[in-house]
Amino acid sequence: MPNPIPTKLNYEYLGSLDIEAGESLMLGELRAGWRRYDVLVGGTFRGPGINGQIQAGGSDLLHRHSDMTTHPHVRLVVKTDDDALILVTYEGIRFTSAEINERLLSGEHVPFTEYYLRVAPFFQTSS
């Protein structure tokens, strides 16, 4: 009898987001943890079958816990080259050392091999 629990993740590369953030609002230490709100102003989505522009007005609400674990909560819209609109949302987890976190917060490009980051993206469209 075949195993009813999937043992292999089947996936296909869809594309890469290059997100441009505008203003960052440092909300600071709140009851639930440290928070920062980033306003997204544009960017691109590029892949083998879909290309488009990230529309202004998205956001990333970053939530950091005392152990330096952070959780992005991102909402944005991509307008494809053929004018379809795609709502992209994702949440995830990132863990870094304090030193790497300071480098990221300062805007420095830090290679992804130096920290742990996993997200779960969701895509919605009427096209």
What do you see in this structure?
The chain is mainly beta. 6% of the residues lie in helices and 57% in strands. The protein is built from one helix and seven strands, in the order ββββββαβ. Strands 1, 2, 3, 4, 5, 6 and 7 form a seven-stranded antiparallel β-sheet that branches. The model has no long low-confidence stretch (mean pLDDT 92).
CATH class: Mainly Beta
Give the distance, in angstroms, between the N- and C-terminal Cα atoms. Answer: 39 Å
Helix and strand pattern: EEEEEEHE
Query: What is the count of helical runs?
Result: 1
Mass-distribution shape: globular
For the record, the count of structural domains works out to 1
The count of β-strands is 7
Computed CA radius of gyration, to the nearest angstrom: 17 Å
The share of residues in helices is under 10%
Oligomeric state of shown chains: single chain
Mean pLDDT across every amino acid position = 92
CATH architecture: Beta Barrel
Using the coordinates shown, work out and report the CATH topology. Porin
Beta-strand content estimate: over 45%
Low-confidence stretches: none
Quickly give the structural class: mainly beta
Please summarize the sheet with the most strands.
Answer: 7 strands, antiparallel
Summarize the structure.
This protein has one helix at 98-105, and strands at residues 16-30, 33-46, 51-54, 58-64, 69-80, 85-95, 116-124. It is mainly beta and 127 residues long.
